[in-house]
Specification:
21 helices; nine-stranded mixed sheet; alpha/beta; elongated
């Protein structure tokens, strides 16, 4: 990524002597670096205050001088200016990239040692007692000759600039310091920075607690066990800092569900992943309804086909259908809030739903109450019902389609409803009859649907051969035992975010 002479550009910043003040150098940092530094400063102050109260570093007199409550404001400055050395490199090199070459990474890491020198330069410049010999002193510092000082506050800042990437087990940089050789304030800044990176970089609905636990696990390796214990005792104060700067994190909004999913409820939805082809992440999910057969054993479940006749005779088709529609809408809204790239949720409805008087008003209320994209909530309707149903059914379907209710033709065969007619009537999706899987007629039907502008979906992808055939024939995505196990809504979110977080 860098050009030859990149290191000279860094040295050039010294020659220019651009930075007359701490504020000037801080403003030269990229915005994302400045924002991170402010958050790290807040976490550092929390850690430092707790460390002073706990007597951290007291066994070593030299270390103890750096951990006194009177230096709390200095600790904040240590966190704020720990990356000040990045002001000496172009902004595009201020944030480490995974694509950095070894040479680029070496240039990037110099910000720690050069940051210490820049801190010394700015400290000397701000000192009134050194105004007269300033020119020669500044040039000397730029050449790498740090002026000696006994000022603890000055040393705390310098050490934080240089040592915040050092690790307890010696695995850090730039010097590979280990254990007590690392300045205690620099060690706190490094821990504060690690905490900030964890909580702000984890894409989650509630990232703080898992990220905090991840950082706690670093005790004895990256960080001193005693300091990790201090962090653990400061959990709630750190949470307050996180909440203060939550808008800089990848935190996702919590979804308010309209369906109360109690553990003892007698019905609900599970979800089948729908995938484009083997090895690819889900492109959509199919919501499958379940009913509890035994109130005392909710794991004993029945499907829609087992209870439909009973539901129809009890005149509960509409009520139960909308219960499931609302639950599926809740799930879709949550996927949207979590920025999970699912094209749609397919909801299996009772076939008798379409024989009921129009439910359009209730559907409109559904989309008003849970504002999901209606084109992404697909209601299944048997292709035979759409192609050969009675007048009432046909009128209901047309009414729904005219109001942009997305209907998926289920068990599609061309003789039930020609592709061109399906498209003209407003059907945007069709799921192939599994009996056509692997046949020339099935492949022709998929191609005809695509040509008509209807998106084909595959079913019964229960073998790798069938899944591959559906993908190669043009199915947008398919479902079946080969596309993944049934999932609860929480599992969908957990797995999708784990993929995005790289875990």
């Amino acid at each position: 990524m860098s050009e030859p002479g990149q290191e000279k550009q860094s040295q050039g910043a010294w020659r220019q002597g651009d930075f007359e003040s701490w504020d000037g150098a801080f403003r030269a940092l990229a915005p994302v670096v400045r924002q991170q530094s402010v958050r790290v400063a807040e976490y550092t102050r929390v850690l430092y205050t707790a460390a002073c109260a706990a007597g951290y570093g007291g066994a070593n007199p030299e270390r103890a001088r750096r951990v006194k409550g009177v230096h709390a404001d200095v600790a904040y400055r240590c966190g704020l200016y720990h990356q000040i050395g990045k002001a000496l490199v172009p902004k595009e090199y201020q944030v480490e990239q995974t694509g950095f070459s070894p040479e680029e990474q070496a240039v990037y890491r110099k910000y720690t040692t050069e940051g210490r020198l820049l801190a010394a330069l700015l400290q000397e410049r701000a000192s009134r007692s050194l105004r007269l010999p300033w020119g020669s002193r500044a040039a000397d510092i730029r050449r790498g000759n740090e002026p000696f000082t006994r000022n603890i506050q000055w040393l705390m800042v310098r050490e934080s600039c240089q040592q915040h990437m050092e690790r307890w087990d010696g695995g850090g940089w730039p010097q590979g310091l280990a254990g007590a050789a690392i300045s205690p304030i620099a060690h706190m800044v490094g821990l504060a920075r690690t905490l900030d990176e964890a909580v702000s970089g984890l894409k989650s609905e509630s990232p703080f607690d898992p990220a905090f636990a991840q950082v706690l696990s670093l005790g004895g390796t990256a960080f001193a066990p005693e300091l990790i214990s201090i962090l653990e005792g400061s959990r709630e104060q750190c949470r307050q800092v996180y909440q203060k700067y939550i808008h800089y994190s990848r935190t996702l909004p919590q979804t308010v569900h309209l369906v109360d999913k109690r553990p003892d409820r007698p019905m609900g939805l599970t979800y089948r992943p729908l995938i484009p082809r083997a090895g690819e992440p889900p492109a959509a999910y199919e919501a499958v309804a379940w009913f509890s057969l035994n109130a005392g054993q909710p794991e004993e479940r029945a499907g829609m086909d087992q209870v439909e006749d009973m539901v129809r005779r009890a005149k509960q088709t509409a009520e139960l259908s909308f219960y499931f529609l609302y639950e599926a809408a809740d799930a879709l809204y949550r996927l949207t809030n979590c920025q999970i790239p699912a094209q749609a949720i397919v909801v299996n409805l009772f076939p008798s739903f379409y024989a009921l008087p129009s439910q359009l008003k209730r559907l409109e209320l559904l989309f008003e109450n849970q504002p999901v994209e209606r084109s992404r909530l697909l209601f299944t309707v048997p292709a035979a019902t759409a192609g050969q149903g009675g007048k009432t059914v046909r009128e209901n379907l047309q009414r729904y389609l005219r109001h942009d209710v997305a209907l998926l033709l289920d068990g599609y065969r061309p003789e039930l409803l020609p592709p061109e007619q399906a498209a003209q009537e407003g059907f945007a999706w069709a799921r192939l009859d599994p009996a056509l899987n692997g046949t020339p007629e099935g492949a022709a039907a998929i191609q005809a649907l695509l040509a008509a502008g209807v998106r084909p979906v595959g079913a019964a992808a229960d073998t790798a051969e069938t899944l591959n055939w559906l993908a190669e024939s043009g199915a947008v995505f398919s479902g079946g035992t080969m596309t993944g196990a049934m999932l609860e809504e929480d599992d969908i979110v957990r797995e999708a975010l784990a993929r995005e977080n790289g875990s």
